[in-house]
Amino acid sequence: MGKSLAVVAMSGGLDSCVTAAIARQDNDLALIHFNYGQKTEKRELKAFHDIADYFEAEKRLVIDFVHFAKIGGSSLTDESIDVTKADLSSNKIPSSYVPFRNANILTACVSWAEAIEANKIFIGAVYEDASGYPDCRPEFFKAFENVAQLGTKPETEISIDTPIIQMSKSEIIQKGIELDAPLHLTWSCYQNEDEACGVCDSCAFRLRGFQQLGKKDPIKYKERPNYL
After folding, report:
1. Model pTM score
2. For residue 98, how far is the Cα from the chain centroid?
């Protein structure tokens, strides 16, 4: 029997890249990416295609979610809101939170999965982020899996897999290294497209993960603060 087909939501960032590497161990990949008016949209799209090429993924889909930029409310999509500097000790919802983004992403993933007869959806959510991003909680994904079961054809069975949700950033990086994931092709910065800023939340979590492992992050940074 051949491998199952899995839809993987892939932003082009570190977490989704490692998630795709995990998924491809037992599945053929169908990679899906979302442009939603984020400030690093072009760079993330390049990372997506670079990683998809590395994994030799023939099935790939890019979807434009134009409504997020119109809705606003996030420093990732609203030019009037600055991307704030990292505060790794904060439990508050950061300005980078895009309202209900993961629900929108999962809705499209379920639609594509049903259309191409994939029975799994992988998404690189991390519970470590859940204090800041309410749509990164395990119970959210379980609830959405139930919604997908109720809202699709009776014969459709789709699971939502979050294989790294309980991992720390350093554990995710280590897993990526073990699986030969192309971490050098990923992009995580919220505000720059040439050199990663090194000071936004996403850069900080990523850099701290590499620093905890005693390894150097392979991408270029404008600044590399010590987050240990």
Report:
1. 0.95
2. 13
